[in-house]
Amino acid sequence: MYNIAIDGPAGAGKSTIAKQIAKRKGYIYVDTGAMYRAMALFLIDNHISPEESEKISRKCLEADISIVYENGEQVVLLNGRNVNGLIRTEQVGSMASASSVNGDVRKKLVELQQKLAKEADVVMDGRDIGTCVLPDADLKIYLTASSDVRAKRRYDELIARGEECDIGVIKRDIEERDYRDMHRDISPLKQAEDARLVDSSDMTIEEVIEKIMGMCV
Ligand code: DC
Fold first, then answer.
1. Is 173 in the pocket of ligand 1 (CB under 6 A)?
2. Pairing mode, strands 3-7 and 122-126
3. How far apart are the C-alpha atoms of 187 and 132, rounded to whole Å?
4. Are residues 78 and 42 in contact, defined by beta-carbon separation less than 8 angstroms?
5. pTM over 0.85
6. Residues of the chain with pLDDT under 50
7. Which of 64, 72, 78, 157 is deepest in the core (most CB within 10 A)?
8. Ligand 1 pocket residue status of 36, Cβ below 6 Å
Protein backbone atom coordinates (compact mmCIF):
# COMPACT_ATOMS: atom_id res chain seq x y z
CA MET A 1 0.00 0.00 0.00
CA TYR A 2 1.13 3.57 -0.68
CA ASN A 3 0.25 5.92 2.17
CA ILE A 4 0.52 9.71 2.06
CA ALA A 5 0.23 11.61 5.36
CA ILE A 6 -0.68 15.30 5.35
CA ASP A 7 -0.60 17.14 8.67
CA GLY A 8 -0.84 20.79 9.57
CA PRO A 9 -2.81 23.42 11.46
CA ALA A 10 -6.47 24.36 10.92
CA GLY A 11 -7.11 26.24 7.70
CA ALA A 12 -3.84 25.35 5.94
CA GLY A 13 -5.80 23.80 3.06
CA LYS A 14 -5.13 20.15 3.96
CA SER A 15 -8.49 18.75 2.95
CA THR A 16 -8.69 20.62 -0.38
CA ILE A 17 -5.17 19.51 -1.29
CA ALA A 18 -5.47 15.95 0.05
CA LYS A 19 -8.74 15.41 -1.85
CA GLN A 20 -7.17 16.52 -5.12
CA ILE A 21 -4.03 14.43 -4.66
CA ALA A 22 -6.20 11.38 -3.88
CA LYS A 23 -8.28 12.00 -6.99
CA ARG A 24 -5.27 12.36 -9.28
CA LYS A 25 -3.52 9.29 -7.84
CA GLY A 26 -6.71 7.20 -7.65
CA TYR A 27 -6.25 6.76 -3.90
CA ILE A 28 -8.77 6.98 -1.10
CA TYR A 29 -8.98 10.25 0.81
CA VAL A 30 -9.31 9.85 4.57
CA ASP A 31 -10.33 12.98 6.51
CA THR A 32 -9.47 12.13 10.13
CA GLY A 33 -10.71 15.52 11.41
CA ALA A 34 -14.21 14.42 10.35
CA MET A 35 -13.92 11.42 12.69
CA TYR A 36 -12.98 13.65 15.65
CA ARG A 37 -15.85 15.92 14.65
CA ALA A 38 -18.32 13.00 14.58
CA MET A 39 -17.14 11.98 18.05
CA ALA A 40 -17.56 15.60 19.21
CA LEU A 41 -21.11 15.65 17.84
CA PHE A 42 -21.88 12.45 19.75
CA LEU A 43 -20.57 14.02 22.98
CA ILE A 44 -22.53 17.25 22.42
CA ASP A 45 -25.71 15.23 21.73
CA ASN A 46 -25.09 13.47 25.05
CA HIS A 47 -24.74 16.81 26.86
CA ILE A 48 -21.13 16.20 27.84
CA SER A 49 -18.85 19.22 28.17
CA PRO A 50 -15.15 19.34 27.20
CA GLU A 51 -14.02 19.40 30.87
CA GLU A 52 -15.74 16.10 31.77
CA SER A 53 -12.83 13.89 30.81
CA GLU A 54 -13.97 10.78 32.69
CA LYS A 55 -17.41 10.95 31.11
CA ILE A 56 -15.79 11.42 27.69
CA SER A 57 -13.59 8.34 28.26
CA ARG A 58 -16.63 6.23 29.16
CA LYS A 59 -19.08 7.59 26.63
CA CYS A 60 -16.74 7.49 23.62
CA LEU A 61 -16.81 3.70 23.77
CA GLU A 62 -20.50 3.82 22.80
CA ALA A 63 -19.88 5.81 19.62
CA ASP A 64 -19.64 3.59 16.58
CA ILE A 65 -17.81 5.67 13.99
CA SER A 66 -17.17 4.32 10.52
CA ILE A 67 -16.43 5.57 7.05
CA VAL A 68 -18.05 4.71 3.75
CA TYR A 69 -17.61 6.24 0.30
CA GLU A 70 -20.48 7.51 -1.83
CA ASN A 71 -19.66 8.88 -5.31
CA GLY A 72 -16.04 9.26 -4.22
CA GLU A 73 -16.98 11.36 -1.16
CA GLN A 74 -16.12 10.25 2.36
CA VAL A 75 -19.27 9.79 4.44
CA VAL A 76 -18.89 9.55 8.22
CA LEU A 77 -21.40 7.31 9.94
CA LEU A 78 -22.11 7.84 13.62
CA ASN A 79 -24.00 4.86 14.99
CA GLY A 80 -25.12 4.13 11.43
CA ARG A 81 -26.28 7.68 10.65
CA ASN A 82 -24.70 9.92 7.98
CA VAL A 83 -23.50 13.00 9.94
CA ASN A 84 -21.61 14.81 7.15
CA GLY A 85 -24.12 17.65 7.16
CA LEU A 86 -23.84 18.20 10.92
CA ILE A 87 -20.12 18.29 11.69
CA ARG A 88 -18.85 21.41 9.88
CA THR A 89 -20.00 23.97 12.44
CA GLU A 90 -17.68 26.06 14.67
CA GLN A 91 -19.31 24.50 17.76
CA VAL A 92 -18.47 20.96 16.65
CA GLY A 93 -14.96 22.02 15.49
CA SER A 94 -14.16 23.53 18.83
CA MET A 95 -15.54 20.50 20.75
CA ALA A 96 -13.48 18.25 18.44
CA SER A 97 -10.32 20.18 19.27
CA ALA A 98 -11.14 19.97 23.00
CA SER A 99 -12.25 16.31 23.15
CA SER A 100 -9.41 15.09 20.92
CA VAL A 101 -7.01 15.63 23.86
CA ASN A 102 -8.64 12.55 25.45
CA GLY A 103 -6.49 9.39 25.15
CA ASP A 104 -9.47 7.03 24.89
CA VAL A 105 -10.99 9.04 22.05
CA ARG A 106 -7.65 9.05 20.22
CA LYS A 107 -7.03 5.33 20.74
CA LYS A 108 -10.37 4.41 19.26
CA LEU A 109 -10.05 6.66 16.19
CA VAL A 110 -6.36 5.92 15.52
CA GLU A 111 -7.17 2.19 15.34
CA LEU A 112 -9.82 2.87 12.73
CA GLN A 113 -7.43 5.08 10.73
CA GLN A 114 -4.64 2.50 10.80
CA LYS A 115 -7.03 -0.18 9.60
CA LEU A 116 -8.12 1.96 6.64
CA ALA A 117 -4.50 2.63 5.63
CA LYS A 118 -3.67 -1.07 5.75
CA GLU A 119 -6.49 -1.93 3.38
CA ALA A 120 -5.98 0.70 0.66
CA ASP A 121 -3.69 3.34 -0.86
CA VAL A 122 -4.66 6.46 1.05
CA VAL A 123 -4.06 10.16 1.36
CA MET A 124 -4.84 10.82 5.02
CA ASP A 125 -4.96 14.27 6.57
CA GLY A 126 -5.00 15.32 10.21
CA ARG A 127 -2.68 16.48 12.98
CA ASP A 128 -0.77 13.34 14.00
CA ILE A 129 -0.78 11.18 10.88
CA GLY A 130 2.96 11.37 10.14
CA THR A 131 4.00 11.31 13.79
CA CYS A 132 1.65 8.71 15.24
CA VAL A 133 -1.00 7.11 13.01
CA LEU A 134 1.21 6.18 10.04
CA PRO A 135 4.83 6.54 11.19
CA ASP A 136 5.94 4.49 8.14
CA ALA A 137 3.96 6.49 5.57
CA ASP A 138 5.66 6.60 2.16
CA LEU A 139 5.35 10.38 1.94
CA LYS A 140 4.78 12.83 4.78
CA ILE A 141 3.83 16.45 4.21
CA TYR A 142 3.56 19.18 6.82
CA LEU A 143 1.31 21.77 5.19
CA THR A 144 1.12 25.16 6.81
CA ALA A 145 0.47 28.86 6.14
CA SER A 146 0.70 31.99 8.29
CA SER A 147 -2.24 32.58 10.63
CA ASP A 148 -3.06 35.82 8.74
CA VAL A 149 -3.37 33.94 5.47
CA ARG A 150 -5.39 31.12 7.05
CA ALA A 151 -7.76 33.62 8.68
CA LYS A 152 -8.21 35.49 5.38
CA ARG A 153 -9.02 32.24 3.52
CA ARG A 154 -11.60 31.28 6.12
CA TYR A 155 -13.05 34.80 6.05
CA ASP A 156 -13.41 34.73 2.24
CA GLU A 157 -15.07 31.30 2.45
CA LEU A 158 -17.66 32.50 5.00
CA ILE A 159 -18.35 35.75 3.10
CA ALA A 160 -18.85 33.74 -0.11
CA ARG A 161 -21.44 31.69 1.77
CA GLY A 162 -23.17 34.91 2.83
CA GLU A 163 -22.24 34.53 6.51
CA GLU A 164 -21.44 37.51 8.72
CA CYS A 165 -17.99 37.37 10.29
CA ASP A 166 -15.13 39.34 11.73
CA ILE A 167 -11.62 38.57 10.51
CA GLY A 168 -10.11 39.47 13.90
CA VAL A 169 -12.30 36.92 15.67
CA ILE A 170 -11.51 34.25 13.07
CA LYS A 171 -7.77 34.83 13.49
CA ARG A 172 -8.05 34.60 17.28
CA ASP A 173 -10.02 31.32 17.01
CA ILE A 174 -7.43 29.88 14.63
CA GLU A 175 -4.57 30.81 16.96
CA GLU A 176 -6.40 29.34 19.97
CA ARG A 177 -7.03 26.11 18.07
CA ASP A 178 -3.35 25.97 16.96
CA TYR A 179 -2.20 26.42 20.53
CA ARG A 180 -4.46 23.66 21.86
CA ASP A 181 -3.61 21.22 19.04
CA MET A 182 0.14 21.87 19.44
CA HIS A 183 0.32 21.74 23.23
CA ARG A 184 -1.80 18.75 24.20
CA ASP A 185 -0.03 15.87 25.96
CA ILE A 186 -0.96 13.08 23.55
CA SER A 187 0.13 13.29 19.89
CA PRO A 188 0.36 17.08 19.63
CA LEU A 189 0.47 18.66 16.19
CA LYS A 190 4.08 18.88 15.06
CA GLN A 191 6.11 18.27 11.95
CA ALA A 192 7.44 14.70 11.82
CA GLU A 193 11.23 14.57 11.46
CA ASP A 194 10.93 13.00 8.04
CA ALA A 195 8.06 15.19 6.82
CA ARG A 196 8.52 17.69 3.97
CA LEU A 197 7.47 21.22 4.87
CA VAL A 198 5.15 23.01 2.43
CA ASP A 199 4.25 26.61 3.32
CA SER A 200 1.26 27.56 1.19
CA SER A 201 1.08 31.23 2.33
CA ASP A 202 2.15 32.54 -1.09
CA MET A 203 1.05 29.60 -3.25
CA THR A 204 -2.12 28.84 -5.20
CA ILE A 205 -3.94 25.54 -4.62
CA GLU A 206 -2.72 24.28 -8.00
CA GLU A 207 0.91 25.14 -7.12
CA VAL A 208 0.66 23.21 -3.85
CA ILE A 209 -0.88 20.20 -5.60
CA GLU A 210 1.82 20.23 -8.29
CA LYS A 211 4.55 20.47 -5.67
CA ILE A 212 3.22 17.50 -3.69
CA MET A 213 2.51 15.45 -6.81
CA GLY A 214 6.17 15.98 -7.70
CA MET A 215 7.21 14.48 -4.36
CA CYS A 216 5.24 11.23 -4.91
CA VAL A 217 7.30 8.41 -6.38
O1 DC B 1 -9.17 19.19 10.69
P2 DC B 1 -10.41 19.55 11.51
O3 DC B 1 -10.58 21.02 11.76
O4 DC B 1 -11.65 18.93 10.92
O5 DC B 1 -10.17 18.85 12.94
C6 DC B 1 -10.99 19.11 14.07
C7 DC B 1 -10.21 18.86 15.34
O8 DC B 1 -9.95 17.46 15.49
C9 DC B 1 -8.84 19.54 15.43
O10 DC B 1 -8.91 20.81 16.01
C11 DC B 1 -8.03 18.59 16.27
C12 DC B 1 -8.69 17.25 16.08
N13 DC B 1 -7.89 16.34 15.25
C14 DC B 1 -6.90 15.61 15.87
O15 DC B 1 -6.67 15.79 17.07
N16 DC B 1 -6.18 14.69 15.18
C17 DC B 1 -6.41 14.50 13.87
N18 DC B 1 -5.70 13.56 13.22
C19 DC B 1 -7.40 15.25 13.20
C20 DC B 1 -8.12 16.19 13.92
1. no
2. parallel
3. 7
4. yes
5. yes
6. none
7. 78
8. yes
Output 135-139 pairs: Cβ under 8 A, ≥24 positions apart.
135/192, 136/3, 137/3, 137/4, 137/5, 138/2, 138/3, 138/4, 138/217, 139/3, 139/4, 139/5, 139/196, 139/212, 139/215, 139/216, 139/217
Contact yes or no for 116/4 (Cβ under 8 A): no
- Ligand 1 site, residue 31, Cβ cutoff 6 A: no
Probe target for ligand 1 pocket from 19, 36, 179, 180, with the most ligand atoms within 8 Å of CB: 36
**128 CB near ligand 1 (under 6 Å):** yes
pLDDT of residue 146: 97
How far apart CA 28 and CA 129 sit, in angstroms, is 15
φ/ψ of residue 47, rounded to 5:
60, 35
Ligand 1 pocket test, candidate residues 127, 181, 183, most atoms within 8 A of CB = 127
Q: Which residue, by CA, sits nearest to atom 1 of ligand 1?
A: 33
